[in-house]
Amino acid sequence: MNEILEPQTFRVTRADLVRYAGASGDFNPIHWSDRVATGVGLPGVIAHGMFTMALVGRAVTAWAGAPDTVREFSVRFARPVPVPDTDEGTEVVVTATVKEVTEDGDTRLALTATCNGDKVLSLAQALVRKR
Amino acid sequence: MPLDQTFAGRTWPPTETYLVGREKIREFARAIGATDAEYHDPEAARAIGYPDVVAPPTFPVAITMAASRQVVNDPALGLDYSRVVHGDQRFAYTRPMVAGDAVVCVNSVDEIITRGGHWFLTIRTEVRTEAGDPVVTVWSKLVQRGEEH
């Protein structure tokens, strides 16, 4: 119990945010315009919270072994993920701990995501059913 | 700006049908860097028991976020979208969404509270097939930041 799973690292660049905006339909300019982002008090362009959650979802399905294993998935967006306009962008590191195996055989994962050492999610967890 | 708390507990009529497309799922999967075959290849999806490509877990928000404009764009609610940040997000899945699903969204406001000058609006969206079979329930908490922030 409380097994710690291998951390997963994802690189995020401005190009990723543009692609995600198009695919998701979330064109809020704080995700592509430094002018607008700083104008509302943000450090600069930030990743969509749902993009970060999608990366965490990739980690979850990788650990669980299949894309259709997720039964519940929840996060709180604790801090923004600033994405500088560089080729390197930034990195999001996702970790997970097995908290529980339910009577039904489902596995509850406690999840964290950090960017530059800051926790960007809190109260993040997933309930997965291994295939 | 205060929100109209009488919106709490209200449920809206189902949205128009959204037809989940195979290429939309592939586009979304590419955008998040998800290469699993079940997101891209119908044969791989059929091999695990689905009729067509499977959507990644967060894909439904692409549908529910648009559907929730029914609530957030109502001027009577009083939401200032320029001050809104995403607080919490939760999904409870009955099954994965798959290409070919024709779904409708039923929005409800679960909660409106104010704390420390901020307003917290929780929208619950039940995503069902046209026949009424549940697919996924999506909760989005939006935070309207206070003026002094």
UniProtKB/TrEMBL annotation, chain A:
MaoC-like domain span: 8-108
Name of the molecule in the record = MaoC family dehydratase
Family under the similarity heading: Belongs to the enoyl-CoA hydratase/isomerase family.
Origin superkingdom? Bacteria
Q: What InterPro entries does the record point to?
A: Fatty_acid_synthase, HotDog_dom_sf, MaoC-like_dom
User: Which Pfam families does the UniProt record give?
Assistant: MaoC_dehydratas (PF01575)
Automatic annotation (TrEMBL), chain B:
Cited InterPro entries: FAS1-like_DH_region, HadA-like, HotDog_dom_sf
The FAS1-like dehydratase domain covers which part of the protein?
A: 14-137
The record ties this protein, via Pfam families, to:
FAS1_DH_region
> What superkingdom does the record give?
Bacteria
Spell out the coiled coil positions from the record. Answer: none
Q: To which protein family does this belong?
A: Belongs to the UPF0336 family.
This protein is called UPF0336 protein ACTOB_000600
